[in-house]
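Thought: the user wants the 3D structure for the chain below. I'll pass the sequence to the structure tool as-is, report back what it returns, then summarize two notable features.
Action: structure_tool
Action Input:
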Amino acid sequence: DKEVVYLLDWVAASGCVFIRNGDAHEASEASDHLAMKYRRVRRWIDSADEFIDRIASGSSISGRDYLVQCPGAAEQTSRAWLSGALVEYRNPVADPDLLTQALED
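Observation:
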């Protein structure tokens, strides 16, 4: 639940545009929509990974993927975008310079 709350807050603060069933929605509206879906099925969701896969990746009505358009980045599926955010949350890098240095070594 803590990870799902993190993801919902992260979506709301992202400044990205979400495409749901062909319509654009602001980040706060997208977060509210995902939170509403989560409240309805929360008892059947055991992890943030399931939240992404079963709730936050696409429309249960149309079957279409949700898309995310962030400033300065290519459009991507919400599944990929949220999965990346979850990986970063679970594995924070304390010093980005250390990560760059480790990748160069």
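Final Answer: Structure generated. The longest helix spans residues 27-41. Strands lie at 17-20, 23-26, 67-69, 76-77.
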